[in-house]
Design brief:
This is DNA-binding transcriptional regulator, FrmR family. The chain has about 140 residues and is an all-alpha fold. The chain is built from 5 helices and no strands.
């Protein structure tokens, strides 16, 4: 099944959806990472053991990955919820996609980060197909 790319609007709207506590948490994490990077620079300036430097690189990389995950998970999850809601409203119960929509609705709470993008594309394809069918009739 070929799907359309996600509209930019998904990600533009998400800017307004970030909770203040999430923003604060991510900024705190980034400030910690900044401190770790400054520490790595000092370690390099002081000719510290490369193994010690590598440990700090790994710690900073893991911290950055965690901050990125928090942002993307929140953004994608809210985008999927909004599109799922819009699609459910557009399907009056006889749109031919009710089983797919209901399955996605049931799966939604348990989706992990890696599944969110695929499910966003899937619900977008369902929505596009419903709209195309509505225009034909």
């Amino acid at each position: 099944m070929q799907t359309t790319p996600l509209p930019r609007l998904y990600f533009i709207k998400c800017k307004d959806m970030l909770q203040k506590d999430l923003t604060r948490d991510i900024k705190n994490r980034l400030n910690t990472i900044k401190g770790q990077l400054d520490g790595i620079i000092k370690m390099l300036d002081n000719d510290r053991d490369p193994e010690e430097v590598l440990v700090q690189f790994k710690a900073a990389g893991k911290a950055l990955s965690t901050a990125q995950f928090l942002l993307l998970d929140e953004t994608f999850r809210k985008s999927l919820a909004a599109k799922l809601s819009e699609t459910m409203e557009a399907c009056p119960g006889d749109c031919g996609q009710e089983n797919t929509i209901e399955l996605l609705r049931k799966q939604f709470p348990d989706l992990n980060h890696d599944e969110l993008t695929a499910k966003m594309k899937e619900i977008q394809a369902v929505y596009d197909q419903m709209k195309a069918n509505q225009q034909k009739s």
